[in-house]
Amino acid sequence: MSTKIAVVGGSFVDIYIYGDEPHGCEVVEDCGGSGLNVAFALHQLGLQVFFFSNVAKDHRATFLLNKLQRFGFDTNHITVKDGETGLHISFNDRTIAVKRGVNDLDVDVDWKVVSECSFAFINTEVSKRTIENFLKNFQGKIFLDAGPRHILSDDIRSLHEDLILIGNESQCERIACDVIKMGPSGARWNELHIAGDGLAHPYTTGCGDVFDAVLIFSLLKGEERRVALEKAVKVSQEASKSFKSALAKAQAVKDLLEDVEAGLSTSP
User: Whole-model pTM?
Assistant: First the structure.
């Protein structure tokens, strides 16, 4: 699938701490940021992704860029700016600290490159000015995730005529979303509801990003809403069972989707 998509979002280094005893904890360090996770998952699914984001000239950026490049991910549109690369820390799957760093700066978008894309994804990890500017100037369909910050205004739809707004239940209490992610309860697209398994799985960080990527990929393949939503729910659910980092979930998304599709094809 050679579809081109522009993704504008944050880049962070993620540190995950699992356990309760200081000398018995497991510490996982990986690339992260919801924008990066969605971009990487879409890349794994075979789309041509142009990812626009900020990092700084520091050891975190070196770690992040080197790892992405080893996976064959295009980092040419990640801009190096003065400051600190973003840092996210979680403890037993609960976020305890976020240093936004250069994610607070406006993202430099190459509009010549973006003009080749009919689709785009953006979320609230970037500055509000970057979001509003992108919505006003992009010519194709935009998937906008309201997370992770509550910075969107009620009139956000007035900035772009072809917008699919995605968010979790708390985010969608403030603005009218098309797609609502409901955790173990599944997801809803207006009146359409796909139930989840109702279970609390241990590794939920980044599952919303996997959901977004699978939903977008399925829709761009021409699948109907019910099918796309069901696949997004099931793949994100499977990802939460054993993959500890968000990027590991994004890296596994192709295999997870194939397993889900195989299961759906054999269902009565």
Answer: 0.97
